[in-house]
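Researcher: Structure prediction, please.
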Amino acid sequence: MAATRVFLIDDHHVLRQGIARMLDQESDITVVGQAGDAQSGIRSMEALQPYPEVVVIDLKMPGQSGMSAIGEIIAAHPDTRIIVFTMYDNPGYVWSTMNAGARGYLLKSASSGDLLRAVRSVASGGGYLQAEITMPLLKRLVQDARSAEDRGALSVREMQILEALADGLSNKMIARTLNITEETVKSHLKKIYEKLGAADRAHAVAIALRQQLIG
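Model: Predicted structure follows.
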């Protein structure tokens, strides 16, 4: 049986190298490449034949965010399984990344055993959610269900734009990062304000932080 091909995308070089060594020690897993940012990672993976089966990716990196990269990878290679590996335990992130197509979500405090189980689970067609974030996510799901009658849930794209707002990006920079037009950004912002009951950009970010939609 061929080893599962894994690609790592994380801007923390020492951590990434350590994970690569750990995974490569397993007979059923091989690390076929790694990158320190999403854009170079996507380019590198496109040059690989065959394409990696599993991608382990961080969320917060210089340039393109991991959240944005997940959608791009899945759109081009629907069969690729993505595991989010991050320090953020915000249930909003878990919800959004899963909606975007990720199959697993782990914190960087996870054990090597957790990561190995996640890789093997998603490679075999399953999913993996670290135990420590299961309860916060379930609470978030209950809250979303209770508030669904009052406001519409934010879409994945709206969450991406909300994240960009929190990072202080202008409409022009958001459009460039997400590869959409500024008019599209403005349209999404209008819907975000309506759903959150926000008056402007700063108000939307404040509400999202208070409701733990973003961290």
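Model: The chain is about 55% helix and 15% strand.
Researcher: Thanks, that helps.
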